[in-house]
Amino acid sequence: MRLNFAWQIIIGTVAIQVAMVAALMISGISQVQQNQSQMLERFAEQQGRLLSSALTPGLAYADPAMLQDLLELVADDSNVLYAVVLDAQDQPMASVGISPDTIPERADGTRTTPGQIEILRDIELAGQPLGTLAVGYSTDAIDALSATLLQRNVLLALGVLVLSMLAAVVFSLVITRRLRLLNQGGKALQGGRLDHRIPVRSHDEFGDLARTFNDVAAHLGSTQTTLEQQNQQLNRSVARLESMLGGANAILWEADPRTHEWEFVSGDTRRLLGFPAHNLGRGELRARHIHPADLPRVQNAARESRTSPRTVDYRFAHRDGQWLWLRDILSWARDADGRESLRGLTLDITTHRRTTDALAESENRYRDVVDHISEVIFRTDAEGHWTLLNPAWEALTGFSVEETLGRPLCDFVAPEDHDDAHSFCATLLEGGSHSQSEEIRLRTRDGDIRWVSIYASARFDDHEQVMATFGTMTDISDRKEAEDEIRRLAFFDGLTQLPNRTLLHDRLGQSLANTERTRLHGALLFIDLDNFKDINDTLGHAVGDDLLRQVAERMLNSVREADTLARLGGDEFVIILNDLHPDQARAATQAEAVGRKLIEILRDPFKLAGQRRHVTPSIGATLFSGRNLSVEEILKQADLAMYRAKNAGRNTVRFYDPELHRAVEARFELESELRHALDQDAFSVHYQPQVDTSGAVIGAEILLRWKHASRGMISPAEFIPVAEQTGLIVPIGRKVLRAACEQLAAWKHQPAFRDLTLSVNVSARQFRHKYFVRDLAQTLEATGAPGHRLKLELTESMLLENVETVIAHIEELRSFGIEFSLDDFGTGYSSLAYLKRLPLAQLKIDQSFVRDVLDDPNDAAIAQMVVNLAHTLDLDVIAEGVENDQQRAFLFGLGCRHFQGYLYGHPDTLAELEALVLRQNDNGNPAAHP
């Protein structure tokens, strides 16, 4: 008989409760009896110990009466059945509740028998046995208590069983009702009703199970909805894939990797291949339509696709007899069961292949044209490095394409055109121009130079950034040579290769513009060979031409690079001199010097047709500055001056302006006399005293004087510039420094003069002479002069160039104790920039400022500035050109403490200077002006 789940719960629950209650009753009663017996035993033991202690005196004294009294007291307890005291020989001495004849057998400890508990305990005194106590206790009270407890437990157990049965019925009803709800929910899910939900009315396990059921049902419903949507989407995708494969001439298939039989095919095989899918399903059927030359590649690709995807192109015979180009993209797949399959996508690439073949053919034709074209075709990346070159590059430069790729254009450009090439590339690569052209020179592998014309255009990306450049390079060397030849023929003389009349006109125009801009002078020298016609007529034109070439070569070696030597024709030559002195007279002197040099170099004989012949020039000169005259007017003036030279006897130089010529002649005469005076030691030195604020002489400046035999005293302002220009200032200055050192050496032994200093002006040309420092050091050593008493006065013009050399010379001379003063300070323009670097001891206020210092505020301000600057730099300051007390007082008020000028003495002889010093010493030094 099949019991339902409710009865199974009730019967099972009652059976379990009965077993549990019975076990609990039996265990409880047994435990109570055991506990009571243990309590009685413990009580008997305690009583035995107490009684033994009380009986010890009676046994010790063998007093039966005392023992009997104690036992009777014990017998008052209703639970005591008997009590006996035995002596050491186990003889009864006292007893209650039992006769001596019925004394139980002696035993140790406690003994339990039915209905009673017997305790036997030995009594000792000082370790000596006295006797034994035996007491028997009744267990009737315990047994009665156990019976009562059993009766109560039985009643309690029956009550518990009844309650348990009621609880089991109620529990089964509740459980089975919830189980029915779960069973109904399960059947609903089984029936496909995923929207069914179980009511949740509790928070126990059944409530959790109901909630879990509802969550599962909801998830299953959501999953079903998702699956339905995915199935719909999959159906749409399949339809779309079918449509795409058909439109794209493609077939998607899956095949058995062993037999290559199609297991799945998607796509219109009939339209693509000419056959329905079932006609091509087996691998051997498809293989029959593959081109025999391509079949091995297809089979190899199918095998190799097992390790990684493979792509293979092959020809396939269409049903209409045409060959199609197909591309298979192959790969292997493994499903969840481990079954392998070969998957493929077959594409019709016939059109693409034909286009590729046509493009390759076009590329080959293009490459053939590019490889054989004479122009260099190139491409660069965004950084300007070549990424493509045709073979014409190697033919042009000798560098192979391989070693050139990756390098920039500038690596192959001649140094002269580096800047142009860099600008060309930068403009193009920085987007400054979409296209650019340039003509530059390339240096070939052999070191030759080739002219090329480059045209390039830039390609931009979507952000307007240059991504590459493309261009061509054409060899224009032959054209450049032709242009140079045309230019040479147009602008150069064919015989001497000098500039001709046309180029001369251009160069002279440039010189006129240069003089207008710089305010300097230029000069034109017109040169005509004397008696050239005689040589040409007697020795022939060939010899005459040879003479002209030799003359041109000699003159070309004598002019500066900035100047121009040209041939006008015949025996006429012209020289343009640039950047002459802004002063007309000095410019004329420079031009005269060049003319005289030409006369000198043409003085030596020429070798002509085995003969030695002399040729002299007649040179006409004219100066120009600005655009007051035209090119033709200047040439005409020089031509007229040349005829003046011929009329003057030839082999000479004449200026177009007679007055200028006389001035030049006077200058050259002065130079000649200056050389003579130097040879004859016609120079003398004078001394102008330098004083302090008290008027005491502290030193002197040595000034050079020249007394001409016929002209008398010649001003230094006249002959010093000539000495500077001719270089005579070097030997003249050497003599002055020698005289100064000799005088200082003589003074150092004379107490009256040994503290004096001597100042010597040194010109820029003299100071920069390569032996100046060496010569002065040797002079100091030879004379024994004290170097610290020698002061060299330098001019500001010395700082206009090579200031580093000046500083080096000063530092070297200071090691000998020599001091330096900056003369004419304030008249130049550059000294302030270098003043703090110069190791000076003194600044000198120029007399041009002192002269009008009382009347001109500007001069006064300059004087004040010089004094302040000297004090700031911790330098001494001296004013020259002081002529009256008012000037001295004003300068003293500014802070100037040293003076030089006519107020204190004119330049005079050494004897006068020494006499002045001696007079001051005798008078005790005059007081300073207030």
TrEMBL record:
Statement: the UniProt record of this protein carries the keyword Membrane: yes
Segments forming domain PAC: 310-361, 436-488
GO CC terms, sorted: membrane
Pfam families linked: EAL, GGDEF, HAMP, PAS, PAS_3
GO molecular function list: cyclic-guanylate-specific phosphodiesterase activity
Catalytic activity as recorded in UniProt: 3',3'-c-di-GMP + H2O = 5'-phosphoguanylyl(3'->5')guanosine + H(+)
Cofactor(s) needed: Mg(2+)
One GO-annotated biological process of the protein: cellular response to nitric oxide
Domain EAL, residue spans: 667-921
InterPro entries xrefs: Biofilm_reg_signaling (IPR052155), EAL_dom (IPR001633), EAL_sf (IPR035919), GGDEF_dom (IPR000160), HAMP_dom (IPR003660), Nucleotide_cyclase (IPR029787), PAC (IPR001610), PAS (IPR000014)
Superkingdom field: Bacteria
Domain PAS: 362-432
Annotated ranges, domain GGDEF: 520-658
Keywords carried by this UniProt record: c-di-GMP, Membrane, Transmembrane, Transmembrane helix
Domain HAMP, residue spans: 173-225
EC number in record: 3.1.4.52
Transmembrane segments: 6-29, 154-175
Protein name per its UniProtKB record: cyclic-guanylate-specific phosphodiesterase
Provenance organism: Thioalkalivibrio versutus
Upper classification of the organism: Bacteria, Pseudomonadati, Pseudomonadota, Gammaproteobacteria, Chromatiales
